[in-house]
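Q: Got a minute? One more chain.
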Amino acid sequence: MGTLTQSQTLWGKLRSLEDPQKPCFPWVSLEEFEVVDWLSSSGLLQAKINDFLTLSWVWSHHNPLSFGTAKTMYKWIEKYMPKGPGWKMETIILDNAPVEPQTLYYQNPVECAEYLLSNPTFSDGMMY
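A: Always. Here it is, folded:
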């Protein structure tokens, strides 16, 4: 894969696509981003998120949310938010249990390092 330059990193690519008029894209505002962040990390089931989204307060709010269902919210997260390196899977046979194949899930450590080192969130905390 080789070494990535700043313009080739995932974060550099995302920054180049940013619209200065929409800094929280795909969310319409920082407030909406905060609601999405909370909903998606709260551990609530999608049905409970949908219950929240149907509350009249949510829709009568001065800045209503731009999505109406948990499914849409998660679809946008999957489509637009940065993703780390993908997981790989391999079936292995252990000497101690040759008739019980095991599934090994792993990530490429070089891809993980490139992803983390190119993430601007960590730039102030890195020393070389």
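A: The chain has two domains: 1-83, 84-128.
Q: Perfect, thanks.
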